[in-house]
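hey team, just a heads up i'm posting the complex here instead of the shared drive bc the drive is being weird again. everything in one block, sequence lines first with there labels, then the predicted structure for the whole assembly after. its two chains so it's a bit long, scroll down
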Amino acid sequence: MKNTIAERIADFIKSFPPFDQLSKEDLYAIAKEVNITYLEKDKNVYTEGEAPHDRFYMIHKGAIALKKEINGKLETVDRFDEGDIFGLRPLFAKEHYAITALTEEESILYGVPLATFKPLITQNRDVVDFLIESFASNTENPFSKEMHGSLYDNRLDVVANDKELFELQPVRYTKKVITAKAETKIKHIGRLMKQHRIGSIVIEDDNIPIGIVTDEDLRNKVVTGEHSIENNVSQIMSSPVLCYPKGVSISQAQLTMMKHNVSHLCVTADGTPNSKIIGIISQQDITVMRGSNPTVLMKAIKRSKSTKELRHIRKKIMVLLDGFMEQNIPLTQTSKIIFELNDATVKRIIERCILKMEKQPPVSFAWMSFGSQGRKEQLLHTDQDNGIVFDGVEENELETVRDYFLLLAKKVNKRLNIIGFDFCPADIMAKNPKWCLSLDEWKNQFNQWTSNTGDDEILLSSIFFDFDITYGDASLTNQLSEHIFLITKNNHLFLSKLGASALRSASPLGFFRQFLVEQDGEYKDFFDIKKRAIMPIVDAGRLFALSNQIKNINNTAERFEKMAELFPEDEEFYLSCSYTSKALLKFRTKHGLLHNDDGRFIELAALTKEEKMKLKRCFKTIARVQELIKLKYNINNFM
Amino acid sequence: MLWNFKKKKHPEYWETYLHHFEKKEKTNLDASRFVALDTETTGFDYYVDRILSIGAVSIVGNEITVADAFEIYLEQSHFDPKSVHIHGILQNSKKHQISEEDAIKQFLTYIEDSILIAHHASFDIKMINQALNRMGLPNLKNKVIDTMDLYASTRIKSNFIDKSVRYSLDDIAEAYTINLMDRHTAPGDALIAALIFLKTTTILKKSKSFKLERYFLKSNRF
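-- predicted structure starts here --
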């Protein structure tokens, strides 16, 4: 029987080592025996101490972390990505698994039976050599991309998170080296740097590095007038080049750079300037590897050339956030930095997608983020909530213009999903024609919600009125916010209903002052901090902002600070609200990081006494805000 | 032994197929064999149109066994050039083709008493039932689940989402970033349906009140 699925699997695996060494027939023979497994996030593929399975695994989609208990702490020893293979060595050695393999994201795995794989590879010298050498190098991951082709790499087993061993890890170098010949004109060097957005170019002769020129050389030797841009680059390059073999540790590379006062090292085959160039290490690479510096991450985002690269950067942003939380850096600063990084990521994606459209937008537009992102309160990965507003066009062109933006949005939404912003389950995304509207259509939409207001309209308003521009023409979003204030001003009916909805989430504490927990479902006996604590305070902030015409402030804490300014007699109260909103957000973020989720549900048993007290203080403030809303907006009629 | 005379004599393969359903009480549903399938047809008319190909994969536990995939192409009497651009199957293509009866025979042997899964399942099952009926056989006995229903339950229930919306396989595959390489081939679509099944049930199982039985289609749907 024909097996189309096996053919497709063969197509997939053939691009990755060691399968790239096998014949078409062998690939098909292997593919036919594959099992496809779907695993959600945080599930074990195999567990330390478990007897070996009859198959090893290749990642078709997702990511796997290998974890091992070191000194009583579960440490990540390695990470694998799409196309990587894991769990092979224990099968060959017939040992029990020494390490746990865990899905870091939801994953689709191909299980390849050893019984099929082994006879095929024993006939293939290349694969066997590769295997022996990889095993000898003592890595669990013989075929990860970094390892591909590297035979004597003495990579350590512990990856980036472990700060102590970090310094000893080999530097990850850039493999795509941009080079030029000695007789290249200086102006061409400048253009090359601009084109590739890089700060250095290696000058080679027959692939042997003979010099290096950096932007600093251009600044010091050309801009000063010493050399003309028509001269050959050989006149300004530094020579000889500092070379190292690959596998040089981070600390060694860094020390060399400091000692010689240079910002780049060349990686060559044997570590001398007499062998072939295989890569380049820049100071930038090292700082990016540390992943602890927002400015470096920002640069990396702006230079990124693929969605995959952005996805890696996003992971580093999470490490950064983790560090901020650990060091107890004030949340206001933390959220601003994380917001800027997220924002830059989305901007970069939109930029790249516009290029991919191969046609400039027909009219000006703005990409809006709604909800928590719009309020700059999104620290962890959460769903995407976004939309597009575009400038008014003639009736007969409207749909053509909308089609352009829908297509653009489709691309952007898809890539955001890839880097970790889940699709919105309620379809509030720009690729939905309902939320890809012209300025006038948005205004009409808002008019409808505020004039004919039911429960749904209130819910929609509470999502859409907190928008923030992420990309594009700010005059469009400004007009839209002006409009919102125009139609809500003195619209007491709407404001009252909005107030009533702010009270709908019942107080988080029960009659006996115990926490109200979820009654059913996956999160039974957990506390829903979003629904019961964050939403009431956010709703209250929005209500106050709208009714007091506080413009251009979307952040809940800042809204309350503004209220404190406007009503000095209640300053203390509003400031406590501001504090509460920050504290709750921090709570959620901490728990999200701890459990690697969105932090919405909190396990009460895991809270310390101090944390519980802190939460209860927050709830007191919420109760006071709700009392105030009841009085001010004459809510009783609507309850 | 009066009933023996009244009973219509069915071919042996049908009896063998029926025999699978006589097994002892069903144990845990999680341990059952599921078969995700898709049919490509000459069109959408149950009476005029015919099945061009059937593709299927089996799921046991959380695993799809590629070696246990099913894929057949049928000889064609009826042919509608209008649908060729969708499924890409020409009347006399080079793929090995078998008669409708052989196809059904192989299919019954393959599915046994497994629970069938398909996207917009009632269409595929109805097409297969029509083929069975043409051969003088009754409808399929298997339980059937529509992945559309599973997916719809994972969506947020809210008034501003159109409840009547029908999610296409493409919509869902896109939402779940499943590769669409083999769209519109029966085995490709069957695999996508299988992945959607695994993913949606994983999500739905988190609720204690989830019961897969609730998603069995009523037999009057096909």
